[in-house]
Task: structure prediction
Amino acid sequence: MDGGTPVFDVARIRQDFPILSQKVRGKDLVFLDSGASAQKPRQVIGAMTRMMETAYANVHRGAYHLSEAATEAYEAARRAVAGFLNAATEREVVFTNSSTAAINLVAHSYGRSVLRPGQAVLVSEMEHHANFVPWLMLRDSHGIELRVCRVTDDGELDLADLEAKLADGKVGLAAITHMSNVLGTVTPAERIARIVHAHSAKLLLDGSQAAVHRRVDVQALDCDFYVFTGHKLYGPTGIGVLWARLDLLERMPPFLGGGDMIEEVTLDSYRPAPVPAKFEAGTPPIIEAVGLHAAIDYVQNIGMAAIEAHERRLVDHAMRKLSAVEGLRLLGNAQDRGGVFAVSLPNAHSHDLATLLDRVGIAVRSGRHCAEPLHTRFEIESTCRASFGLYTTEGEIDYLAEALDKAREFFG
Result:
């Protein structure tokens, strides 16, 4: 600490990420697509390799050393996630293969067993398709109404519209992003929870982006469900997390049937295992759980406060630099935003712009970023998205701004 400011040495941190040292088309790699999937530090790569080399076996089922070691590693990952989220108990942590799978689990299990036809699910215009399509599917199969809360011109959640959509008491569940993957908007989650609960509805927060950039305390947020994914948090693909209040998980029926989720099976019946096992059918993502544990240890050793302070500096710097690029359109101007910037240039299709940036070593996303309703809301076909990680530097942002300015001249 220096005068209360968390210490953050980005140059040292970058040394932990082997991929960042490579060249792309003869240029230093400038990786600005961490919002899609973040790069992996040696600590995560090493933990997964050691697991495969020294302690791999299936979990929960073997009365031999390797299985016992693997089971302990898998359950240690669950405890790490519980600590990361400040869950009341590790039993509230369910491993899935992604945030998408976690939301689908809630939609199929809670949505079909607790919500009733005629009730409504409330989402927002800024949701990722993963927090939109499952509720459309529930609407079509189960008779649930889907309501959509507006987003303001600045990219904020319209809280007055949120209140209005809840007013008749028919909404059983609100499913809202904690941080937009396009606008960078960080939604006022605690305030949203108070509003939603005042109307006797439950709240699911999609933390796929937020959990990477902000300290998440599910008890302080007072939400009912929270989801995030490993691969955006510097961990591996193939593992996600559903956190839910224990009483809700105990009410919900299993989503998938098979091994490890049962207590007893007969020829004509089954009894599911206790929470969380009843939601983890089949062989789970064992190695991936170990990688997620290592990723959580990695960011916690750096300190989430230090990571957040670093990102705030990056966001302020990017706002100044990108706003100075003539003709550049930046989606969203929320008061509280993270390191996600969706931009467009006149006369330039997003794919062409991304290709041009790639020629100078800059990796950005192009398209609609699994958020078509949001792009429709802002009347734009597609955008290029630059998203930051803890290894992003101000110099890389400067380089991006210079490249965008040259691209503006190129496209005329």
